[in-house]
TrEMBL record:
<dbReference type="InterPro" id="IPR036188">
    <property type="entry name" value="FAD/NAD-bd_sf"/>
</dbReference>
<protein>
    <submittedName>
        <fullName>FAD dependent oxidoreductase</fullName>
    </submittedName>
</protein>
<keyword id="KW-0408">Iron</keyword>
<dbReference type="GO" id="GO:0051539">
    <property type="term" value="F:4 iron, 4 sulfur cluster binding"/>
</dbReference>
<keyword id="KW-0479">Metal-binding</keyword>
<keyword id="KW-0560">Oxidoreductase</keyword>
<dbReference type="GO" id="GO:0016491">
    <property type="term" value="F:oxidoreductase activity"/>
</dbReference>
<dbReference type="Pfam" id="PF12831">
    <property type="entry name" value="FAD_oxidored"/>
</dbReference>
<keyword id="KW-0411">Iron-sulfur</keyword>
<keyword id="KW-0004">4Fe-4S</keyword>
<dbReference type="InterPro" id="IPR039650">
    <property type="entry name" value="HdrA-like"/>
</dbReference>
<dbReference type="GO" id="GO:0046872">
    <property type="term" value="F:metal ion binding"/>
</dbReference>
Length: 501
């Protein structure tokens, strides 16, 4: 039996394991995919950092991102890198932590988590039970948390739930683009029958964060088996309307990576995001999630092939697109094809309803300071489009952003309290949650970045170590001891820029 079981070999899970090893605990890490490093090793290699650089601290900065820097002979953290470098660092840190790592281990249902009263006692994956004294959910899906019976939310709360001005269905803050003729058809959905400010179970768009190269050994974009150029009719109109000359004008300005590689993201109003396809993912079975992953891959792979080959595009555009390809030295064993990312970017899944729910108010003065801070953060409230729907004769609405412009709503530098990482008092006593932490949709929109997840993973590791030492429920933690443990290895819990410092 391990002291701690960590579900998810994400940066959050890795940082938790490293912190635990420094306290003398060896963790078992169960990873539902075939790779360690989460989305950072799976394609998200343009890392969003806080608006106040000093907020990124601790082992996340000094060991994970500085470890990536060391891969390139650089002294200090690096935030533009190659997936293979992130995976090497992830593996090395897990080895340093002495963690027992098992990949391809998925929690399927509540039957896969054993509890005794208010404590989790074991997790089953692949027909094998794994016992531990403490558990950390560091996954993007929150399956351990959910299977343990911890309350959670999916989608968007209504504005009245937490008195958040940006919550719920927000048509007045939506993008509106046109003309599109027609303005219906995949991936545009039906007009929502929802009142403004009303909640729903819809999640913001996911995508694959692709990596492209222009090197001579690039792999050409493959033609998917069920390729349908008709899927990209709206994108064709949008490219013509915007006067986009080629793929290079879409990807080269976003992120130039080492060794001649480039990062893809949404890019345009119609782009690599696929609004609507993510809605079933958070609460879906793994079979349903795999269907969603396949649909997202068809959209992304088909788009790349379409950009390079469709005769409706000018030959100059297609020729430019063919100067790009997939990198042969990345994702060699991806189940979605050589050179294509093996991880879907799950921007937001379940969100725990825990001891404290982080909301829009916590991101802004005067509620931005906390007595039990485990990390500082500052990043604008960023939600991608949730849904496309038609309006009038030629407009497509992209609803779900929190501003309706390219500028996201600003936040103040804020502190994240330990209470967002644990179930409510009276709930599960030996569990912390690093990624699907307790927050509203709006509250989650700012801190949902991988470096912050890493720092929250560190806090989860220290909370676990303290609970193991004292034998007390995690909700009865001693903050002075927690703060001392966190700062011992570089965490920053307060900054002078915060009000009241």
């Amino acid at each position: 039996m391990s002291d701690v079981l960590i579900y998810g070999a994400t940066p959050a899970g890795i940082m938790a394991a490293l912190r635990l090893s420094l306290r003398g605990h060896r963790a078992t890490v169960l990873e539902p995919t075939g790779h360690v490093g989460g989305i950072v090793a799976g394609g998200l290699v343009k890392t969003d950092t806080p608006d106040v650089p000093e907020a990124l601290a601790g082992l996340t900065r000094d060991r994970y991102f500085a470890g990536i820097g060391a891969e390139y002979g650089e002294d200090g953290p690096k935030f533009l890198f190659e997936p293979k470098a992130a995976e090497r660092v992830s593996r090395r840190l897990l080895e340093e932590a002495g963690a027992l790592v098992k990949t391809g281990r998925r929690i399927g249902s509540g039957a896969d988590v054993e509890t005794d009263g208010k404590r989790v006692t074991a997790v089953r994956t692949g027909g094998e039970w794994h016992r531990a004294r403490f558990f950390i959910d560091a996954s993007y899906e929150g399956d351990l948390m959910a299977a343990a019976g911890v309350p959670y939310a999916v989608g968007r709360e209504g504005a009245s739930r937490y008195d958040e001005t940006l919550a719920g269905f927000q048509p007045s803050r939506a993008y509106r683009r046109g003309p599109f003729k027609p303005n219906t058809g995949y991936p545009v959905g039906p007009v929502p029958r929802t009142a403004e400010g009303e909640g729903d179970h819809k999640t913001q768009a996911y995508n694959f964060r692709g990596v492209l190269t222009r090197e001579a050994d690039r792999l050409p974009f493959p033609k998917p088996e069920d390729y349908d150029p008709g899927r990209y009719g709206h994108l064709l109109q949008h490219l013509r309307d915007r006067g986009v000359a080629g793929l290079s004008s879409i990807v080269t300005h976003t992120a130039a990576l080492p060794n001649g590689k480039f990062q893809t993201n949404q890019a345009l109003f119609f782009g690599f995001d696929l609004p609507g396809a993510s809605w079933d993912y958070p609460d879906g079975s793994w079979r349903r999630r795999d269907e969603i992953i396949a649909e997202q891959a068809r959209w992304h792979q088909g788009m790349l092939y379409w950009l390079a080959n469709d005769p409706a595009l000018p030959e100059s555009f297609r020729a430019d697109a063919r100067t790009f390809g997939l990198p042969p030295d990345e994702f060699a064993d991806s189940p979605l094809g050589h050179g294509f990312p093996h991880a879907l970017y799950v921007r937001e899944g379940r969100r725990m309803l825990g001891q404290h729910v982080l909301t829009q108010h916590d991101l802004l003065r005067p509620h931005n300071t906390k007595a039990t801070s485990v990390a500082c953060w500052a990043y604008a409230m960023d939600s991608h489009v949730v849904q496309y729907y038609p309006e009038g004769d030629g407009t497509v609405v992209g609803e779900g952003t929190l501003s309706g412009t390219v500028v996201n709503p600003a936040v103040d530098l804020y502190q994240i309290p330990a209470e967002v990482l644990m179930p409510s008092r009276g709930g599960v006593e030996n569990l912390t949650v690093a990624i699907c932490f307790s927050a509203s949709h709006v509250g989650f929109s700012s801190p949902r970045m991988e470096p912050n997840f890493g720092m929250l993973g560190e806090a989860c590791g220290e909370l676990a170590a303290q609970s193991l030492r004292t034998g007390l429920p995690v909700q009865d933690y001693d903050y002075a001891d927690l703060a001392a443990a966190l700062t011992e290895h570089g965490s920053v819990l307060a900054l002078p820029q915060q009000e009241g410092e």
